């Protein structure tokens, strides 16, 4: 958790309305997802590679920031963050709203959740 949030103020992401999404966000923050890098580390997957990018390990960073499979959703997310005045596009910002003014943290997490839902990957996270 310390990777994405460096204080212990009330968390803007506790929603309790969509359990699968809350679980996915928590797993992403802890680094314990069902993405293939983690499954491979646990000897559950034969390789660590992204299902759409056969030579690239499927890390959380790859899923959020690089994978071409989610390019259009990522572009929408980035555009919406810019409209909020959030210019940083990295995992601490997306998963913990780190560095974002408290008045906009909930909106950042809401946009991240929209990305996750649109990606169709919630069962894999
Ligand atoms: Zn990929």
Name the helix and strand elements from N-terminus to C-terminus, one letter apiece.
HHHHHH
Largest sheet: none
Number of strands: 0
Uncertain ranges: none
Helix content: 40-55%
Organism: Portunus trituberculatus (Swimming crab)
Protein name: Reverse transcriptase zinc-binding domain-containing protein
Task: Give short descriptive properties of this protein.
binds zinc ion; 0% strand; 125 residues; mainly alpha; single chain; 6 helices
Describe this structure in words.
- Helix content is 50%, strand content 0%.
- It is mostly helical.
- The chain has one domain (19-124).
- Helix 4 runs antiparallel to helix 6 (102-119).
- Bound molecules: zinc ion.
- The site of zinc ion has 7 residues, from loops.
SSE layout and pairings?
Layout: H1 19-30, H2 36-41, H3 60-66, H4 71-83, H5 91-96, H6 102-119
The structure holds zinc ion.
Zinc ion binds at residues 50, 52-53, 56, 62, 67, 69.
Quick recap:
The protein has about 120 residues and is an all-alpha fold. About 50% of the residues lie in helices and about 0% in strands. It is built from 6 helices and no strands.
């Amino acid at each position: 958790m310390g990777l994405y949030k460096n204080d212990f103020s009330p968390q803007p992401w506790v929603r309790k309305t969509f359990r699968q999404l809350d679980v996915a966000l928590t797993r992403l923050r802890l680094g314990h997802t069902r993405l293939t890098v983690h499954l491979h580390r646990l000897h559950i997957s034969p390789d660590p590679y992204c299902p759409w990018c056969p030579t690239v390990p499927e890390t959380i960073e790859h899923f959020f920031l690089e994978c071409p499979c989610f390019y259009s959703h990522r572009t929408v997310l980035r555009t919406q963050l810019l409209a909020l005045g959030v210019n940083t596009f990295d995992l601490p910002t997306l998963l913990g709203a780190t560095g974002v003014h408290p008045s906009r943290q909930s909106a950042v997490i809401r946009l991240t959740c929209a990305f996750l839902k649109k990606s169709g990957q919630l069962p894999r996270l």
